[in-house]
Design a protein that fits this description.
This is Protein kinase domain-containing protein. By secondary structure, the chain is α+β, with helices and mostly antiparallel strands. It contains 9 helices and 11 strands. The structure holds adenosine-5'-triphosphate and magnesium ion.
Amino acid sequence: MDRDASALQLESRPLLLGGQELSPLGLLGVGRGVVVYRVRRATSTEDLACKVFDASRATAFHSELAVLTAIASEAHVPGLPMLEANSPAPGPGAPGAEAQHLLLTRPVATRLEHLTSSSVLHIFHILSHLHTKLKVVHGDVEPKHLAVDPASGTVCLLDLGSAAPLSGSRVVLPEARARRYSGTLLFASDDVLSALAEGAQPAAPHPRQDMVALVKTACVMVHGTIAKAAAGRAEAVAQQLAQQPPDIARAASMVRSFWEQQLNASTAAGCVWSELVADAHNIPGSEDVALYARASQQLCGQLATLVCPG
Ligand SMILES: Nc1ncnc2c1ncn2[C@@H]1O[C@H](COP(=O)(O)OP(=O)(O)OP(=O)(O)O)[C@@H](O)[C@H]1O
Ligand SMILES: [Mg+2]
């Protein structure tokens, strides 16, 4: 996931955490008002991921920090980012330097080349932990957020920045943030797409949203032709969202019609995947853990048969 090192010049300020400077070693990714670096502390040889938020994304920083803190308070589940440290840093900094918002996590993950049945099993394990123990939805399962921990070979689910609390969750986010859909529209579930297409509030967070996003992600990762079509549609959707004001309703209905076409039961691939997407939509809430576990195990078993063995 490392990008061109010359882009490191993007960060002109030193990365400071607790008064200690972090050495940027590579660029892992760029998001909206966010840059993610591979970094190292002067006192350590371990590489860590450092997510740097613009001042304009301070709310996003605080939300992600709340979720990462909750994850760190539970028994460690391999494949979920572990919070190592965070700012605001009290460090010396240049006089007048803006406050930096940094999240330092491990592991630094690498690209997931193929979705295998064992990685599907592990992603379900991670989602079940989020849904039933932490009572949050991930909110942005998509191909870019599936990766591998190179040290253990475990599949990782990155970017908790769109996570939203289910009822009874100990993770408290500002109401406006908890209700706002900030996941990737192309992988959203029907309840989210319908609400947004009608200009309404997005549907309340529900585990089905992650399950649908995972099945759609797998579909895109398995079928080259669907992946190509999805890339084209993502571009058209991005154009709608880049308008001022963004045309979210039009973008959501474009995504809905995209999946209607791709999951058309008249094609062999469409037929199999449309059943799975429908099953993912029927996943129950996680208040009844046994019911949720049964339905998600069944979905996991079906999905595992459609990806690479191994
Ligand atoms: N721990 C990590 N290891 C490797 N790469 C990472 C890590 N964390 C993030 N990245 C890369 O950086 C990209 C952006 O990070 P992240 O998704 O957390 O930010 P974002 O603001 O949500 O961006 P986007 O809107 O593109 O999803 C990720 O898609 C991924 O490619
Ligand atoms: Mg992201």
